[in-house]
Amino acid sequence: MIAHVRGTVHSVTLSSAVLEVGGLGYEVLCTPDTLAGLRVGEEALLATSFVVREDSMTLFGFRDADEKSCFQVLQTASGVGPKLAQAVLAVMSPDALRQAIHADDAKALTKVPGIGAKGAAKIVIELKDRIGHPHGTVTSGGPTVTVVTWREQVVEGLVGLGYSAKDAEKAADGVAATLGDNPDVGVALRAALQHLSRG
């Protein structure tokens, strides 16, 4: 595995950069934000992830280990490959991604090309326990977290996954008694999905 690449920036395009290391040029696919920090002729150090497929070998580059870690965690979600994971990080910083997932804000993920409402809701559910907590300061008391009840968020998540509002509300009501007054939304959503699968 190629964990990082340090070398002189030979060229920069809209989607990649070439770093020259010991006479070899390594093409590294990067987000626009990472590319914006590179200057031709200057030395750069990029954390990297080497992705091998049957028909390709691709080196993805990141400005730091945190961005690389989020890239790798994103790919553990169903239907998320390396290109889609990079697209997410092109739209959202690692902390913005963590905040969206912990606030069950699937709508924020739909801003990424290639992710619809259903896919965004699945990513939020699957990564809730894997993505880690935001590193920056998160203001408390915001309306998104405090005003919307867990039940409303569960219903919205189920509708985003393709269920009717009526079925989503029934499922939320069906699991409410077993979850307590203020359950974790991710836990509640998983319970509601299990309730629906049982018919």
TrEMBL record:
<protein>
    <recommendedName>
        <fullName>Holliday junction branch migration complex subunit RuvA</fullName>
    </recommendedName>
</protein>
<keyword id="KW-0234">DNA repair</keyword>
<dbReference type="GO" id="GO:0003678">
    <property type="term" value="F:DNA helicase activity"/>
</dbReference>
<keyword id="KW-0963">Cytoplasm</keyword>
<dbReference type="InterPro" id="IPR011114">
    <property type="entry name" value="RuvA_C"/>
</dbReference>
<feature type="region of interest" description="Domain III">
    <location>
        <begin position="146"/>
        <end position="199"/>
    </location>
</feature>
<keyword id="KW-0233">DNA recombination</keyword>
<dbReference type="InterPro" id="IPR036267">
    <property type="entry name" value="RuvA_C_sf"/>
</dbReference>
<keyword id="KW-0378">Hydrolase</keyword>
<keyword id="KW-0227">DNA damage</keyword>
<dbReference type="InterPro" id="IPR010994">
    <property type="entry name" value="RuvA_2-like"/>
</dbReference>
<comment type="similarity">
    <text>Belongs to the RuvA family.</text>
</comment>
<dbReference type="GO" id="GO:0016787">
    <property type="term" value="F:hydrolase activity"/>
</dbReference>
<feature type="domain" description="Helix-hairpin-helix DNA-binding motif class 1">
    <location>
        <begin position="72"/>
        <end position="91"/>
    </location>
</feature>
<dbReference type="Pfam" id="PF14520">
    <property type="entry name" value="HHH_5"/>
</dbReference>
<feature type="domain" description="Helix-hairpin-helix DNA-binding motif class 1">
    <location>
        <begin position="107"/>
        <end position="126"/>
    </location>
</feature>
<comment type="subunit">
    <text>Homotetramer. Forms an RuvA(8)-RuvB(12)-Holliday junction (HJ) complex. HJ DNA is sandwiched between 2 RuvA tetramers; dsDNA enters through RuvA and exits via RuvB. An RuvB hexamer assembles on each DNA strand where it exits the tetramer. Each RuvB hexamer is contacted by two RuvA subunits (via domain III) on 2 adjacent RuvB subunits; this complex drives branch migration. In the full resolvosome a probable DNA-RuvA(4)-RuvB(12)-RuvC(2) complex forms which resolves the HJ.</text>
</comment>
<comment type="function">
    <text>The RuvA-RuvB-RuvC complex processes Holliday junction (HJ) DNA during genetic recombination and DNA repair, while the RuvA-RuvB complex plays an important role in the rescue of blocked DNA replication forks via replication fork reversal (RFR). RuvA specifically binds to HJ cruciform DNA, conferring on it an open structure. The RuvB hexamer acts as an ATP-dependent pump, pulling dsDNA into and through the RuvAB complex. HJ branch migration allows RuvC to scan DNA until it finds its consensus sequence, where it cleaves and resolves the cruciform DNA.</text>
</comment>
<dbReference type="Pfam" id="PF07499">
    <property type="entry name" value="RuvA_C"/>
</dbReference>
<dbReference type="InterPro" id="IPR000085">
    <property type="entry name" value="RuvA"/>
</dbReference>
<keyword id="KW-0238">DNA-binding</keyword>
<dbReference type="InterPro" id="IPR003583">
    <property type="entry name" value="Hlx-hairpin-Hlx_DNA-bd_motif"/>
</dbReference>
<dbReference type="InterPro" id="IPR013849">
    <property type="entry name" value="DNA_helicase_Holl-junc_RuvA_I"/>
</dbReference>
<dbReference type="InterPro" id="IPR012340">
    <property type="entry name" value="NA-bd_OB-fold"/>
</dbReference>
<dbReference type="Pfam" id="PF01330">
    <property type="entry name" value="RuvA_N"/>
</dbReference>
